[in-house]
UniProtKB/TrEMBL annotation:
GO CC annotation, single: extracellular space
Predominant location category: secreted
Limits of the Peptidase M14 domain: 79-377
Organism of derivation: Amblyomma aureolatum
UniProtKB keywords: Carboxypeptidase, Disulfide bond, Hydrolase, Metal-binding, Metalloprotease, Protease, Secreted, Signal, Zinc
MF GO annotations: metallocarboxypeptidase activity; zinc ion binding
Any single GO BP term: proteolysis
CDD domains reported in the protein's UniProt record: M14_CP_A-B_like
Active site: E340 (proton donor/acceptor)
Family: Belongs to the peptidase M14 family.
Listed name of the protein: Putative carboxypeptidase a2
Length: 377
């Protein structure tokens, strides 16, 4: 009932009820809020209005966020950068450090490069692949990816563990796989989730949920929508989004070499693995549990942040068309993980949600990096 109601009223679900938590957090358009509350209440659900003006939260965030050009490498992690600043930073790392190469894996709907770096000490190494920012409003995800790039680039000559990691793997890191949506979330709609493409079905509603656009798991069946106006629109067809096709092509190019895949999201403090589309355990379930347990333990040691771990369909929700399931089943990367970064979905100040304060970037990035290092050890 709740899912049907949310779909009909085009609700933006920030947090879903699942095995870990009994409540949902939903953003509604003012014109449908009363109808939602009435229908949910009549069905026996308790509804609490936390705020009647989400824009106030966005305005408060803007007071703290400043987009002035950074002057030092450290200040890159004291504010949320925009696309051009990401691009400039990646090119700077590549120019300064011989083991870093600037690249892009395709172009977005609006023509932006899908920027990234390849970091390696030699050729033909197993690859660790990072997909960040597929949902534009989750700003902490690209920021954390940039921090990992920074560590691998700047610490290579002085940190023996970093040198070992760069000698063991090639790191392909793409901090902004949905740059159109990311820029739109900075400039126009802070809570934008989708790409910025135009649907052939309804050109008035822009974009698709890129993490529902992969051809896997009964396309557009679970936690997806065929309505172009929905936040979880699966797209006109599988791989309709150029950003998703670029990820697909980049992974097919390295088939047989992919060792790890990490997709960064927010929020919730979840370390997840396949499957999303099915509640049936994956063939590599025990291996993925073992890696997840080690990684989340490493994260907790940094500042006592406790991640939950498990299959996406169990600890989050069942969904079709995700990058992670496609990577696992089609690209053949068995050590595939999706992380929901800070803040926590259980103890957090809900007013932060996707709007994690800039002063929290460094702490979130550092603990995540410790988990990644342990996972690939």
């Amino acid at each position: 009932l709740l899912s049907a109601l949310e779909a009909r009223l085009q609700a933006d679900v920030w947090q879903e009820a699942n095995d870990l938590r009994p409540s949902e957090l939903v953003r509604l358009k003012p014109e449908v809020a009363d109808e939602f509350v009435s229908a949910a209440s009549q069905s026996g659900m308790a509804v609490t209005t936390l705020t009647s003006n989400v824009q106030e939260l966005i305005d408060d965030e803007r007071k703290e966020v400043r987009f002035a050009t950074y002057s030092t490498e450290k200040s890159r992690f004291e504010k949320y950068l925009k696309y051009k600043e990401f691009k400039s930073a990646l090119k700077e790392y590549a120019k300064k450090y011989d083991h870093v190469t600037y690249t892009f894996m395709g172009r977005s709907y609006e023509g932006r490069d899908l920027i990234g770096v390849h970091i390696k000490a030699k050729n033909n190494l197993p690859i660790v692949f990072f997909e960040c920012g597929i949902h534009p409003r989750e700003w902490i995800a690209p920021a954390t990816c940039l921090y990992i790039i920074h560590q691998l680039a700047t610490q290579y000559d002085t940190d023996e563990n970093i040198k070992r990691l760069v000698s063991k793997y090639e790191w392909r890191i793409y901090p902004l796989v949905n740059p159109d949506g990311y820029e739109y979330s900075h400039n126009t709609d802070r809570l934008w989730r989708k790409t910025r493409s135009k649907s052939r079905i309804n050109s008035e509603c822009r974009g698709a949920d890129a993490n529902r656009n992969f051809d896997i798991g009964d396309f557009c069946k679970h936690r997806s929508s065929s309505d172009p106006c929905s936040e979880q629109y699966c797209g006109d067809n599988p791989f309709s989004e150029p950003e998703v096709r670029a990820i697909k092509d980049a992974l097919e190019e390295i088939k047989g070499r992919g060792e790890f895949y990490f997709a960064f999201h927010s929020f919730g403090l979840l370390w997840m693995f396949p499957y999303a589309h099915s509640r049936t355990p994956s063939p590599d379930h025990d291996l993925l549990v073992n890696i997840s347990e080690r990684a989340t333990t490493a994260i907790e040691k940094v500042r006592r942040t406790r991640y939950n771990y498990g299959p996406i369909s169990k600890i989050m929700y069942q969904s079709s068309g995700s990058s992670l399931d496609w990577v696992y089943d089609r690209a053949g990367i068995k050590k595939a993980f999706a992380l929901e970064l800070e803040p926590s979905s259980q103890t957090f100040d809900w007013k932060q949600a996707f709007m994690l304060k800039p002063r929290e970037i460094l702490g979130a990035a550092k603990e995540t990096w410790e988990g990644i290092k342990e996972a690939v050890a």
